[in-house]
Amino acid sequence: MDQGVRSAEFGPPGPLRNRLVLLILRGQKTATSSLVSDYDVEGEPLPEPGELELLLNSNDRGVAVLETIAVTIVPLSDIPWSHVVAEGEGHTSLTDWRRDHEEYWAAHSPAGQLDDSTPVVMQEFRVVERLVAD
């Protein structure tokens, strides 16, 4: 891979990342959500359409190349149902999605207190190359 390609890590290594990577490789997960503040804290630029990322598994091994299709920033209160469905994680309501994401961000993000106005990055992507078989 080109050294300019950044890595895509969906959750910390372990069961959550394993599940999310599998959903991506199966084509069930084509979107993700993150906090703008996390990019700020890490000094990372926001993803951009056309950008390629190396999807890492729990062993930090590249398993696929993802291409960002779209990036939209919205307040937490404005996440649409269509995005929740594209995340492919089985949430049955916006309330269910928000609860799970707020719990995750509280445990893994330096964002601090979240509220309806917290900026969220909605990223859509596609697998452009698989590097491993199922």
UniProtKB/TrEMBL annotation:
This is ASCH domain-containing protein. It comes from Kocuria carniphila. PANTHER family: CYTOPLASMIC PROTEIN, CYTOPLASMIC PROTEIN-RELATED. CDD domains: ASCH_Ef3133_like (cd06553). InterPro entries: ASCH_domain (IPR007374), DUF984 (IPR009326), PUA-like_sf (IPR015947). Residues 8-129 form the ASCH domain. Pfam families: ASCH (PF04266).
